[in-house]
Amino acid sequence: MLGPIDTVRLFTVNLKKSLDFYQGKLGMTPAVSDENVAIFDTGSAKLMLEVLEADSEEADDLVGRFTGLSFAVPDIRAAVAEMEGKGVPFDGRPELQPWGGALAHFFDPDGNVLTIVQYPLQD
């Protein structure tokens, strides 16, 4: 039987620039880091940044795309305001979803699209 999701991989062509973003703007600290990879322990799953050659076919396919990766926050408007204050670019304002939560999409230095999500309050 499968266990919980352990690690989600994102790809970058510039690990230094990505580390500056994930550490400086998002406040994450790498648990492991070398010249090709950085792994952040986010609590329930790890986030791995992995370097690809900038002009490779693999980078063309995997860098700068919608990731489907979401970070949960208790107050999405406050999170967006704080992140924008640190220079994190968003593609728009938080949007309410038919299922009762809200989503906002932002970009890392490679153009990877990440999401913050506020789930509906439970009664």
Descriptive notes:
- The chain is globular and about 40 Å long.
- 22% of the residues lie in helices and 34% in strands.
- The mean pLDDT is 94.
- The strands form two sheets. The chain has a four-stranded mixed beta sheet with strand order 1-4-3-2, with helices on one face.
- The protein is α/β, with parallel strands linked by helices and 123 residues long.
- It has a single domain (7-118), classed as 2,3-Dihydroxybiphenyl 1,2-Dioxygenase, domain 1 (Roll).
- It is built from three helices and eight strands.
From the structure above, extract its key features.
123 residues; alpha/beta; four-stranded mixed beta sheet; 2,3-Dihydroxybiphenyl 1,2-Dioxygenase, domain 1; 3 helices; 8 strands
Break the fold down into its secondary structure elements and pairings.
Blueprint: E1 7-12, H1 15-25, E2 30-33, E3 37-41, E4 46-51, H2 57-62, E5 66-72, H3 76-85, E6 95-96, E7 102-107, E8 113-118
Parallel strand pairs: 1-4, 5-8
Antiparallel strand pairs: 2-3, 3-4, 6-7, 7-8
Look at the structure and give the CATH class: Alpha Beta
N-C termini distance: 32 Å
Integer-rounded radius of gyration: 15 Å
The fourth-level CATH homologous superfamily is 2,3-Dihydroxybiphenyl 1,2-Dioxygenase, domain 1
Morphology = globular
CATH architectural type: Roll
Into which percent range does the helicity of residues fall? Answer: 10-25%
Number of domains: 1
Coarse structural class = alpha/beta
- Low-pLDDT segments, ≥5 res: none
Beta-strand content estimate: 25-35%
Distinct helical segment count:
3
Order of helices and strands: EHEEEHEHEEE
Largest sheet descriptor: 4 strands, mixed
Mean pLDDT score:
94
| Strand line-up across the major sheet | 1-4-3-2
CATH topology: 2,3-Dihydroxybiphenyl 1,2-Dioxygenase, domain 1
Total number of beta strands: 8
